[in-house]
Amino acid sequence: MRQIDDTDDRILRVLTREGRISNQALAEQAGLSPSACLRRVAALERDGVITGYRATLDPGRMGRGFVVYVGVGLSDHSKTSQQAFERAIARTREVRECHNITGTIEYLLRVECADLASYKLFHTDVLGALPQVKAITSYVVMGSSKDERA
Hints:
Elements: H1 6-17, H2 23-30, H3 34-46, E1 66-74, H4 79-90, E2 95-100, E3 107-113, H5 116-127, E4 133-140
Antiparallel strand pairs: 1-3, 1-4, 2-3
Helix pairs in contact: 1-2, 2-3
């Protein structure tokens, strides 16, 4: 496992905010020469610390500004039931994240929809229709003071 030093950490923080930054600008912000910075970024990619680059999307501008975190409890705790649930969730457009968690429920989902009416349809026609689902708890996002998802 690679040890992340302070310089790597500076590089990673900048890349998390600005994935399309030029190597020259990144080097300046990290306090390195461009060649040293490029070597470090290449090493971070090679070692699997940086796994890819992607566009950060604005759900509101895409017509999906209604964000809900959904806790899902399954009626059956078997591996087969979990796999069936995960396959069904993988086919949905609305679910942007699906996390298998510990505690009183099995899954935490991040759902993005156009509005409350479209979430109600998803809640009823998708989640509510899955035979594995026993309980659904919705947490509507009213605002986000910090969001570092890439």
